[in-house]
Amino acid sequence: MLKIYCDDFDFSPLERAFDGEIECLCALSAEIIFTDGEEIRRLNRETRGVDSVTDVLSFPSLDGIKGRTVDKDDYPADIDEEGNLFIGSIAICTARAEEQAEEYGHGYDRELHYLAVHGLCHLLGYDHMTDEDKPEMRAKEERVLEKMNLKRDS
Description:
Blueprint: E1 2-5, H1 12-17, E2 28-35, H2 37-48, E3 56-60, E4 85-93, H3 94-104, H4 108-123, H5 134-147
Parallel strand pairs: 1-2, 2-4
Antiparallel strand pairs: 3-4
Helix pairs in contact: 3-4, 4-5
């Protein structure tokens, strides 16, 4: 089970879509915040050394969890106030999401969900920097989006 904390958007369909996608013995949680271009550029510069606006940034709390069964007993310092294992935070630039939705020819809602899925995959240890890693992450993203009936044209 995954709990997403976000004050500005209802991600409950995404929470349900991640059922069965994570091997875990406990409930997990993540935080998603929306930001503007200036703030995401600052975060990108300060955390990655890249001075540019980006669409999404992920800040994982746990290392080495990809492909493992996750248990909160292994991470006692990362339990949130509701007893969930906190896996990290995601920042999404809403301006970039709007631009990309138009550019890729699908709706804003689909783009926000895609960016959230992308960020969550990073929190879970997936990456797309190498030719070996990219197909695995893309397949997981598409599988989760398909569970929500969010195709490229929606």
